[in-house]
Amino acid sequence: MRTIKFIIEYDGSDYVGWQRQPNGLSIQQVVEEALIQLLGQPARLFSSGRTDAGVHAHGMVAHLQTQQSLPLRAFRDGVNRFLPSTIAVQHVEEMPPSFHARFDARGKWYRYNIYQAPVRSPLHARTAWWLKTDLNLDAMKEAAALFVGRHDFGAFRTSGCAAKTTIREVFAVDLQGCERLLTIDVRGSGFLRNMVRMMVGTLVEVGQGKRSSKEIADLLAGRDGVGSAHTAPAHGLCLMEVWYDAPSGQ
């Protein structure tokens, strides 16, 4: 049995998310159906995690177990032949049999895009949150530093999150403005459901003068009377990369 690792890029605008769902078309379903056409037999992908409806990915990781002896390039080019223009396998790699895309992941990098301008941009409409007024970047950077470290992010998850613990470690939150585009890069060991979007939404409120840095500290401490964290729109979020330990011997 071979274990094949896939790195998949997609525009999630037209999908219900990564995971198969009964209420619409998912990325997983489309890629698995392409694999079935290539391999001529059932195929199931195990991913590094989920992305919600409208969220994009530059580097979603998934793995497939198969007995097929196709060369690696055939898994990439063959699957891409059956995929729509919104999804593409960018890289394939053969892994040890014990590899698991989800359970072996050591960290993830998400990027959130914000477009600041008085007029909307059609070119950024599917990949950035449009805000008409400028944000206070210095205030947002100061607040972002509070997220770094190991904290209880229970206030930064939505209902339906099935995580057993709300303790997560955030390695870095970096904000960079370039002309009208603001990028927020969040790196961490793992994330709760909608955690990054709620972090971004709260930082935007700080940038708008609607919240203070102290309120973020209060949210992380679970103090009452702070209000809930605001959730940024899905379409500005992109999963950039998933990290793994190097296989033994490398």
UniProtKB/TrEMBL annotation:
Q: Which residues lie in coiled coils?
A: none
Q: Which UniProt keywords apply?
A: Isomerase, tRNA processing
Which residue positions are annotated as catalytic?
52 (nucleophile)
Write out the catalysed reaction.
uridine(38/39/40) in tRNA = pseudouridine(38/39/40) in tRNA
Q: What molecular functions are annotated in GO for this chain?
A: RNA binding; tRNA pseudouridine(38-40) synthase activity
What are its E.C. numbers? 5.4.99.12
Positions bound to substrate: 110
GO process terms (BP)? tRNA pseudouridine synthesis
- Domain (Pseudouridine synthase I TruA alpha/beta) spans 8-104, 143-245
Protein function:
Formation of pseudouridine at positions 38, 39 and 40 in the anticodon stem and loop of transfer RNAs.
Which NCBIfam families does this chain map to? hisT_truA
By sequence similarity, the record places it as follows:
Belongs to the tRNA pseudouridine synthase TruA family.
Assembly mode: Homodimer.
What is the name of the protein in this document?
tRNA pseudouridine synthase A
Specify the species. Answer: Syntrophotalea acetylenivorans
